[in-house]
Amino acid sequence: VGADQVVTDAAVAASFAHDLTGRFSGRPLLVVRPAHTGEVSAVLRSCARAAVAVIPQGGHSGMAGGGTPRDGEVVLSLRRLQGIEPLDQTAQQITVGAGVTLEALQEHLRPFALALPVDHGARSAATIGGMAATNAGGALAFRHGMMRAHVRGLEVVLADGRVISRLSGLLKDNSGYDLTSLLIGSEGTLGVITRVRLGLERLLPRRATALLALPDIGQALEVLRLAHESVPSLQAIDFFELRGLRRVCAHLNLPAPFRRDHEVYLIVDCAARSDPSEELEVFVGVVEDALVATDLASRRRLWLYRDGQNETVNALGVPHKLDVAVPVSLLPRFLGELRVRVAEIAPAAELIVYGHLGDGNVHVNILGPPVEDVRVDVAVLELATALGGSISAEHGIGLAKRGWLPLARTETELALMRALKDAFDPAGLLNPDRILPDLDPG
Ligand code: MLT
Ligand code: ZN
Question: How far apart are CA 338 and CA 332, in angstroms?
Fold first, then answer.
């Protein structure tokens, strides 16, 4: 890769070694920055020969420690894989290098009125390869599905350097097991994604965003029901609470959006061929207050109250951060019981909750208890599981939740996962110890 693409200076390597939440860090052996698939393959062959662990890393915006090295591991940064290949307008697909950021792809596609229908607040850092490797979700997922729904093909380098390339973008291809699709959501444990072929959607030109103020989460579900019934232009419906709003306003120096406080807020995003704001009138009468914006700058201002939550939490301290999902109709029960459990375990803790209402995805952030005190983490994950939910909705397992995977998966499933890991990476050098828990010695 050239000597200048191998970073051994500890100070420089540190920027690849600390995650955003401050929960994970390590001292990598080195950071290596290949520029194309051939170099990735050569690096992996060298690492296999030297038997050193390799941590594939994209934009490093993950939340579960899946891309953060531990001491002595090699960081394989994919950010230099920046190729954007010619748009296939007939198939409405494009192939891009793993290191292209979501924002760069959005800008590239805008003149063609096309987009990848996956979006989230980390768009300027998150890379397409990382988003495929983690099956990224975000605010549009309840309408359009997660990353998996849009990947039409992958090029992958295996742990021993061999390359599998399936990039022709066929929608119909039942020629045996779909091996590369196993890489989606595998968090760098099965292989390294170097190129991604994506299915695209037409960008709808007219937009409207509403910030709705509500008395409680039960009323938010009524808004969701109404939205499903009468707002066909709905793309996203996220929620946050008064505590989070106050913290965001203070941190980002924003004015309060409404004259008085409300318990729950929804941000609703609509897109259509003609102005969708009329559809939003259906909410008059069910909300306590509302703001509607149709131009880009005002819409972005409204989204800041929601997208600023993560950054604000991280600025307040190292949070206990739990990305869970519960069946949407059980959200009021989940949030009610969550408050009670956290208050019992850590009465002085600050609970900041927000998320994606449409798919029941809740981001639970608990500030106060020391990081090593995991009682609140266990309580949140057990509560979500007891209600038929998931211990990881969109952030993955990484290092953060591997110990709790047995809460979510049966022994049979875990055994199959281990067998897959052994088949793809028999020496266990790719992102070791991420996702899969230690084998129960008994
Ligand atoms: C979000 O929805 O803001 C992101 O998933 C990150 C977070 O958990 O805060
Ligand atoms: Zn999210």
Answer: 10
- Smallest CA separation from ligand 1 atom 7, residue: 310
Distance CA 247, CA 78 (A): 35
Does position 438 have pLDDT exceeding 90, yes or no? no
Residue-averaged pLDDT of the chain: 96
pLDDT value, residue 441: 59
The arithmetic mean of pLDDT across residues 333-354, rounded, is 98
Task: Measure Cα distances from 15 to 3, 25, 61, 213, 358 in Å.
Answer: 19, 10, 12, 39, 35
Most distant CA atoms of the chain, gap in Å: 67
Q: Residue 383's pLDDT is what?
A: 98
Burial classification of residue 289, based on how many CB atoms lie within 10 Å of its CB (0-12 exposed, 13-18 middle, 19 or more buried): middle
Q: Which residues line ligand 1 (CB under 6 A)?
A: 63, 120-121, 309-310, 323, 363
Which helix (H) or strand (E) element contains residue 378? helix 375-386
* Count of other CB atoms within 10 angstroms of residue 72: 11
Q: How far apart are CA 340 and CA 23, in angstroms?
A: 25
Structure pTM? Answer: 0.96
* Ligand 1, pocket-test mutation among 63, 118, 307, 359, most atoms within 8 A of CB: 63
Joined tokens for residue 134? 């983690």
Provide the pLDDT for residue 442.
55
